[in-house]
Task: structure prediction
Amino acid sequence: MGAMPSTRPHPLHDPVTRWYAEQARTLPWRSPAVDGWAVLVSEVMLQQTPVARVLPAYTDWMARWPTPAELAACAAGDAVRAWGRLGYPRRALRLHGAAVMCVERFGGAVPSGYDDLRTLPGVGDYTAAAVASFAYAQRHVVLDTNVRRVLARLVGGVEYPPEGGPVAAERAVAAALLPDVPAEAARWNVAVMELGALVCTARSPRCADCPVAARCRWLLGGKPRWDGAARRGQTYAGTDRAVRGKLLAVLRDHPGPVARVELEPVWAEAVQRERCLDSLVADGLVTPLTDDLFTLPT
Result:
């Protein structure tokens, strides 16, 4: 999935990568010593979850399961329990499934090839490109929310990228900016990502601290406000996702099976509560032992 090399160095490369060398956060998954498993775990945990919440969970997870084989040898329910309150717990099941596949098909290691990475449960285009780039220093376009926002402002002159996943025009811009040398491309990817996380933020960009402010079309254009559809805010309280989290917390914190009656205090609205419990069973996050007794998957 590597992009076609550009024909010349781009003037944005040096200032952005120099800024990264001086300002980047020290994060455990960025250590030169990390392997593909460490990067895969971090990328899955960081999906829609802030770094501050991920760090303690990531540290505990890697201490317990430093390799895919060690996680694969445990029950899927152990992964769900260890996931704690990170949210979107199906990610824990997918990591467990990925660990099993790494053992069964790839000799216990996370594969380095993009196509092989895409075969792992829960690994889509972004995660495969990120692992190949950050763990194996390969040349791939890596477009997360932060990168998309930086490129929308810097190159496109608009405040935000389109909602939803990356479109073809965004990929073309990112590919044109990607350095030719794979290791440099990997460093560019992480540097732009960090720029979006720390400086070119969604709500309060610190343009005075940006190393490429003089070349930013959005800034030079007077920082025009977004004129597309209103950006959707995230709600949580009272949603099915919130109720699922409450139900799962009871099962996660309980040493054994949980009776249906023990779940009733979690949420008073019975129809929604039962719907959410059914969805947890359908997703494989909860296993029914009887009609009224539930446990985490084994």
Remarks:
- The domain at 13-136 is CATH 1.10.340.30 (Endonuclease III; domain 1).
